[in-house]
Each structure stands twice: as C-alpha cells, then as structure tokens.
Design goal:
Enzyme class (chains A, B): transferase
Distance between the termini of chain A: 52 Å
Cofactor (chains A, B): Mg(2+)
Organism (chains A, B): Hydrogenibacillus schlegelii (Bacillus schlegelii)
Oligomer: homodimer
Number of domains of chain A: 4
GO biological process, one term (chains A, B): Mo-molybdopterin cofactor biosynthetic process
Pathway (chains A, B): Cofactor biosynthesis; molybdopterin biosynthesis
Strand content of chain A: 25-35%
Chain lengths: ~425, ~425
C-alpha cells in the first residue's frame, strides 16, 4: 500500500513530467482539407513561387514606365493597345515603346512592361473603347513596379512559412494551397478512450436508482476532446473495483493512445487507481498534485500509452483536464504550443474561502474591458458544484498561501483561446 | 447593367441586412454528444434536481450536529457507527442521538443526520476501526449543514441554466448530462457549398499552366467552416462566365443552405455575379460595401437560401468571410452571439498607407501584454498577399478617414476567440 502515502507534488512539476513524457504519434500524409485541426509534423517547403509570375494587381494596362514620363492632362501620352490578357491568360506580345497590353487583375504582365496603369487613370480618345487596336491616353506618369506583384514576392519557393507543430486551420490551408502544397504530413489524430468509474453512476437514460447520480464527466470529457478533433470513444462506466478497472483500462490501452478515467483516485475506502496501475505494470508519473480541486490526480504510463486518472468530482475533472490532460494530449498530437492562453487579469469577484498550502484554481469568467483583461471568480467553487461551469471560460491560478483580493491582478488561464498558431 | 452602378453601403448596414435576413434552420433532436458544436434551439428545463438527494461532500460520518455540541479534545463525544454507506448506496437506518453512519463522498446522508464530520476530524478509540459496530470520537463540534450538499442545491429541477442559442461544448454537456438531459434540441448543422470562380484557377494537383494560379480561397473557406462544425462541400471551381456560374450556383442552392463563391464580383470585364443573381431570381441584399479590402462583396438571397459572393482576392475573402459570412452563418446555425470578440487594443505596428473614405481592415496579430490587449498590423496589407495571413488572428478596424498611429487604441476583432458562451 506504499502508493497511498505519496506526497503531493507541485503543479509545475506534475505538468513537466507529463510534457517530458509526451511525444507525437505517427506521421501520416493526408490531403490538405482532411488535415484541418491536425498539427503539422513538418513545415513543408513551398514547391512554387507565389505568385508564380509577375502579376497585375489591378484591371488596367501594362506599359513601359519610361513611355509615360511627363504625361499630364495637357500633354497626354498616347499608346496603342496591342493585346488583351485576362486572368488565366498568357501574353503573346512584348510591350514595345508606344504600346500597351490591356491586363486584368491577376493576369500576367506582358514582357517589356514594368508598370500597370489602372483603368480609372486612363483616358479614352473619341471612338476608342480601349480594346485591342484602340488607342489610350495616359495623363499621369507611371513608376516602374506600379500595381505589379513580382513572382515569388508574396511567398518564395523553398521557404517554409508554416512550421512543424502548427495547427492546420484556414490561414495555414490558404498559405499552403496557394503554393501547391495539396498534401501535408501531420501527426495522426489521437485515439482516446473515456471511462467513468463508480458504482453510483448512471451513464445511460432511465430513472436514477436511490443513491445514484448521473455521469457528467464522461460527456464533458468526450465533448472537450471531440472539439479538439480527436477520435473519442466513450466507454461509459465501470465499477470502481480494482478488477473491473484493470480489465476496462487494459482493453482501452490496447486500442488507444490514451485512457482517461474519472473517479476511484482519492483516499476513501474504495479507491483503486494506484493498485490498478500496479497490476497493469504501469509506471506512475505522479499520484497526487498540490492543487485544489484535483489533488488526487494520478497519471501512469506504459510504453507509449498513458492513463490519466482524474478525480471524480466534476470540478476536479474540469480543472485537471485543462491543466494536464489537454496540453499533454496536444503535445502527443504534435502541437508546438499546447497550453491555453495564460495572462494576468484584474480580479472582479472571488469566492469566500481562506488561503491554503495548495495551488488553488477557481472556475471563472474572463473578458476584456476597454482592452484590459478582467476576471470574475465569484461563483460557488465547491468541487461538487457543476453549476460553477456555467460561463466558466477561465481558471484563476492562486499560488499556495496566497489569497488575492478583488482589484488585484491574478494569473488566469483563458481556456477558450486556442494555443497560439504561428509566430508573427 | 444597372446593377453595376450600386453605391457601396456602410459595413454596419451590410452586416445588419445579413443578420436581419438570417434565421435558424430546422430543429433536430439528437443525443447530447452528437450535438457537440451545435447551437441549442431551446434551453432545456432540467428534469431532475442536482444533486438528486442530500449528499456527503467528504468521506466521513453522518451525525446529528446537536450531539456534538461541546466536543473537544478533553471532552470527546462518543458515537456508535450503525451503518456504512458508499457512493451509490442508500442508507437503511436513521441517525438517532448517539449514533453515526459512516458515509463516503457522494453517498446519501442518512435521515436524522444534519452534518458530515470528515474522517480526518474523527478519533478512533483503542480497538475501533471506525466501521459498523465500532465507536468513534469527535473532538470538534459540527454545525448543521457541514459537508452536505442539499438536494437541488447545485441545479434545481425545472431551471434552464443553458439557454437557447448557446453552443454545446464540454461545459454545457456536463451541466445538462448531470441533470438527466441526454438528448437536446439543436439547430441542425448547416450545409454549405464552396465554389471558386475563375478560369485562371487550378484547384487540383498538377503543374500550373502559364497564367494559372492555385485556388487558395476554396481550401481556406472549407477549413474555416469545417472548424465551425458544418457540412462543407468544396465544389472546386468553375469558369467565371455567367452561364457556368448560374448553373453551378443553382445546383448548390438546391442542396445546401448556403453557397459561398469567390471571385467574379468586381467591375472588370469578366465580372458576372450581379447578372447571375438576376438570372437566378435572387434578391440582392447589397452589392458593394465601403470597406477595404472586400469592397465588391455581394450577397443575394432567395427563399431561405443565401449566396455569399466574396471577392476573389485572398485578403478580401479572408476579411469578408470574418465580417459577413461566419457571423451570418452562425446565426443561421442558431447562435445567440455570432460575432467574434470585439475589443480595443493598443496599436503596436501598422502598414504604411494613408487614410481613405472606406472602413479599412488590417490583418493583424492580437495578444495580451500584462493583461492588456495589443495588436500588430505591421505586415504587408496588399489584397493579393497571402503571406499576410501568417499568424493573423485579428482584424484591426479603421473607420473611414481615420488613420491611427502606433501607440493609439484601435478597435479589434479577435478572430480566434469563440462567440461568448453563457452569460455569467
């Protein structure tokens, strides 16, 4: 029973042990759109220049800037239009002195030209429609480079603007697609099994027997991890006896990367997780963390599989899932940045409780007031209070022994803000 | 060709017209976990009290507080343990004076008892294990209500803590599941078709023909809307001739709620959207918006279907998708709050360009510095620059004629922050 006597370790040390252990799963090559929500295993080298040719930024006329020197209302420069090029077309003529090529937005700029004059800056002489064979008049001098985006100016071939560990979202999809990257190497989606332990739980429908309560941790964890894009199997519940837990977790570990259980971890008469880990030959990463709620949080590993045994109290599950489970799993999924946004905020409300020698986490709501983060932790912080989840988009972190007052700055995890994508 | 002469309208007016038109799609009843990411059509009335019975918050002993009056180290109160109740169990005995029921965390509190004394506050006399038939000693008086969560205290039956229009995420799933709501009525997932127009585009793999560019808007939009949880069909591309666009959009409108096209909207020779909308019998909501980038943005509706014709320039697509498309679609998907977070932030960097009589939107990066929002819009803001998307998690909004300097406060849309969930 030595495992029962573990001393709680600091939250930073517990997180460090998880992150040190966690490594990305296998790399798969998939079409770009199927990779949405996954993390890049490698930052692809762009195979093409963007744009792939010198391109007009406006509907207008490709001209030689030198031709237009001195153009003014009184002394217009007259050019003859020798060709028309639409986006998708390709010029066949070269712009010689005295000529211009009508060039639409996105169309290639004809050789010989070094500027594009927008339609609205061009005057059409009597009888001219500004089309091939017509004359146009310029009344403002053009400068070399005007309204032209040079080949490779936006994204040069061979560069890697989106790095390994970035999450593939719409912006990354646009950047990669435009340079011809239509398949990417990403870390495959995690496979996670969720299991709630406890004879008191009812997971399915139907009336509660006396003494039973509904399983809320299973649906919460499943929803949380589905929103990350992972494959989540909700195994429902099992008895919190060692034998049942060992059997259920063994099966889940064989088919998945991660097993998340809730319950059966604390020091009561029927707590079984440390023993089950022993029976499964797992190495304990830690057994208790000096936090409230969530102190009996236990993590075990075996090979490349990990078992997060979260405490059964809903608030403990909520807090430990955000502090340990999600960031560790994001790292396993290949993320370069795995934590939610951490900042400081002015405390607007707090629960009535005194300091303790543990790191406290208050479920709270953070928002911006005139550009400044403020946070309200005034709701009931009871571990068993699920109502404290309503609107809780943040955790206030209170170090051991501290007891911040309303109006003071506190450390806050902003849970809804995704890990930062790309360095800017 | 009257449609071509439309005056641009203000961004607020254009958004108002979209939101006024948009109404939620049909309501479906689905299991809770399948509803993840959907918006609730109705806030369910909780069918059960949470907790469903008076419940112990600690491992300990259910006692009569009156019995413990005057308990101290010198004058302990001795009680006899008459029963043991685990979580999931149900007491069969009543706590009479001089008795206690051993009661584990989450277990029902036996009738007669009005307080729970935690294990750690109980002394065991010589030979007692504190189990049924043993005696225990209390050395601190208990107060009525100690460590008991009363039936319905957390969430009372009949209340509706999660309202219509809230997005179903992990917190909402926990709150509803715990009160026995295992199915919810949500607005069904949107069906969206994405179509890129332009003969210059290459959507699939293979080398570019001279003058062609890659389709990046399609993958970007598809990724954006997949991350919202909607059913997105990427129809690839079609020619930007009226006939092709009419045909492609007609088919897409029949099978989906929304068609999003890019390109073919501006005043060039080959622009066709207004004509196509006319041919399809659609009502124009607006044809131009006084913004940059994105001015030729056009929206048409017919019955309960909507066509967003976004400009083809990638930056225009990016900006208009965030300002018009996503919020309108979120409202159609049942959201109560459809916009991303809007706040003010201190401007850290800005592009070199002068004021214009349009509302400008700069792709930018927002973050928190010591709890205060700051934003950097120092990247190239060219409409055709896809590299400007890298790390752009925000849009800086600059009103017509204004030209904020570095160090000033500006309005910012924080694109990655989801619409606020529940009022707190």
């Amino acid at each position: 029973m030595a495992v029962r006597e573990a001393e709680p370790i600091a939250v930073e040390e517990a997180r460090r042990r998880c992150f040190e252990w966690a490594s990305p799963r296998e790399v798969v090559r998939v079409p770009l759109v199927e990779a949405v929500g996954c993390y890049l295993a490698r930052g692809p080298e762009l195979p093409e220049d963007v744009p792939p040719f010198d391109r007009s930024l406006k509907d207008g006329y490709a001209v030689r800037a030198a031709d237009t020197a001195g153009a003014s209302d009184g002394t217009p420069v007259s050019l003859i239009v020798i060709e028309e090029v639409a986006a998708g077309g390709w010029p066949t003529r070269t712009v010689e002195p005295g000529t211009a090529v009508r060039t639409m937005t996105g169309a290639p700029v004809a050789p010989g030209a070094d500027a594009v004059v927008p339609l609205e800056n061009v005057r059409l002489p009597e009888g001219s429609a500004g089309r091939e064979g017509d004359r146009i008049e310029l009344v403002i001098p053009a400068r070399a480079g005007d309204e032209i985006q040079r080949r490779g100016d936006d994204l040069p071939k061979g560069s890697s603007p989106v790095g390994a560990g970035e999450r593939l979202g719409p912006r990354e999809a646009a950047v990669l697609a435009t340079a011809g990257v239509l398949e990417v190497e990403v870390v495959r989606r995690l496979r996670v099994a969720v299991l709630s332990t406890g004879d008191e739980l009812l997971s399915g429908p139907g009336p509660l027997r006396p003494g039973q309560i509904r399983n809320s941790n299973g649906p919460m964890l499943a929803a949380m991890m589905r929103m990350e894009g992972w494959d989540v199997r909700d195994l429902g519940q099992c008895s919190d006896r060692v034998e049942s837990v060992v059997q259920a977790v063994r099966g889940a570990l064989e088919s998945g990367d991660v097993v998340v259980t809730t319950g059966a971890v604390s020091v009561g008469d029927y707590d079984v997780v440390p023993h089950a880990m022993e029976r499964l030959g797992m190495k304990l990463l830690f057994q208790k963390v000096a936090i409230r709620p969530g102190k009996p949080m236990t993590v075990g590993v075996k090979g490349d599989r990990i078992w997060f045994a979260l405490p059964g109290n809903p608030a403990s599950t909520f807090v430990t899932a955000h502090l340990f489970l999600l960031p560790t799993l994001r790292k396993m999924a290949g993320a370069r940045v795995w934590d939610a946004l951490r900042t400081i905020a002015v405390l607007k409300g707090r629960p009535s409780e005194g300091p303790i020698p543990l790191t406290r986490y208050w479920r709270a709501r953070v928002w911006l007031e005139a550009g400044r983060a403020v946070v309200d932790a005034g709701r009931e912080q009871l571990s068993a209070a699920i109502s404290s989840f309503l609107g809780a988009n943040a955790l206030v972190e209170v170090p051991p022994g501290e007891d911040p007052r309303v109006g003071e700055a506190v450390a806050v995890w902003w849970l809804d803000v995704p890990p930062a994508p790309i360095g800017y």
